[in-house]
Amino acid sequence: MDPNKIMGNILRYGSLFSILLILFGTAMLFLNNGANNYTLKQIASHDSEVSTNGISASQLFYGFFSFDGISYIVLGLIVLIATPIMRVIYSIYFFGNQKNRVYLLITIIVFFNLMFAIFFIPYIL
Amino acid sequence: MSMLPILFFILIVIGGIIAGLIGSLTGLGGAVILTPLLVLGFNIPIYYAAGASLIASIATSSGAASAYVKDKITNIKIGMSLEVGTTFGAIIGVLVAAALYKANDLSIIFVIFGIALLFSVYPSLKKIMLRNKIKNIKPDKTTKFFQLTGSYYDEKLKKRIRYHGVRWWYSEIIMFIAGIISGLLGVGSGALKVLSLDEMMRLPPKVSAATSDFMIGVTAATGTAIYWQLGYIQPFMAGAAAIGVLSGSFIGSKFLNKEGNGFVRMLFLIVIIALGIQMLLRGFGVF
Q: Which one is predicted more confidently, B286 or B255?
């Protein structure tokens, strides 16, 4: 299978799926006039206090089953951020498979930087 | 300022569409235009605007770049190898941004943003003035080691164009700086990336633009987690911005002729310069 096609598809369908989640979440937000114990007015204001900071994994889980608007938008954002990461993971597999040592190492370094920024730095701040 | 939620949503989406359109026409990506629009136009705090723009730049990178990846205009190897620099830089940039936000020292952010905007016009201006006069440089050691060769099919010329990249280390240093700016301001740093690929590596403009687009997603994703943890991403605004910028860049790439429209591009560059001056003035406390 053509690696460009696979990588292009990862990017295309990842971003498409995330936009659908965001659109659905926004629609639920307006239909329910709010989400997650906040009113729509509190969420949709220029200096809103609702941010990614206060949303836990369990909240997302319950939010998913109760069609909570903010939870769906946040899930969409997570899929969006995961999309370029997925294509880095695919690159590691591809260059490993091709036995291209230079690029296997390069892709692993990029992946390491991403993981360091996502899972390590936020917890030392 | 109290605004109807639906109106607030529509305004951010429209702002995103404008930023995406301008971004795809000038090749700068949308975030660098969206942040000043949100801050100066809608009075949104700069950290929320930067968070939303960072999200929007991932959306455009993945959405718009996918077609170039499939068409093999993007050079995946060159992109991946230079992402080493952009991701390192992004980590440092985000940490500096976090320190400045915590110290409530926003004036520096505004000043650097203004400079970045004014600078971002340079590659496009040069392209309009000089019309692609690229001198070929002979392959060097890095060309071979990092496998910086490639080819793509040019639809307009109806032939396959072969090319090679040179000076990988210099290119990587510029990418590192691009990463710092990206994390610091929450933008994709498309202008610096294109400069690094065009001028340092001497890639054909089409390959530079496509590869830069491709790299923005990973660079921005590196910074996003830290913005996320610090609470600088407001889901409602970020979602609306992503929808807007993605639609705008899609419209820009589908329905507008990228090669022509010199006048329209010039007009947009003037808009970007005006936004840059306004950000600078805000940084110096003038307004």
A: B286
User: Whole-angstrom Cα distance, residue B235 to residue B286?
Assistant: 31
Facing residue for A19 by CB, picked from B90, B221, B246: B246
pLDDT at B215: 94
- CB interface of A with B, residues 51-90, below 8 Å: 51-55, 70, 73-74, 76-77, 80-81, 83-85, 87-88
Look at residue B255 in the predicted model and tell me its pLDDT.
65
Q: What DSSP letter does each residue of B35-98 carry, written as one string?
A: HHIIIIIH---HHHHHHHHHHHHHHHHHHHHHHHHHTT-S-HHHHHHHHHHHHHHHHHHHHHHH
Rounded to the nearest integer, the mean pLDDT of chain B is 87
CB–CB of B147 and A103 under 8 A?
yes
Q: How far is CA B285 from CA B110, B113, B252, in A?
A: 10, 14, 35
What integer pLDDT is reported at residue B264 of this predicted model? 74
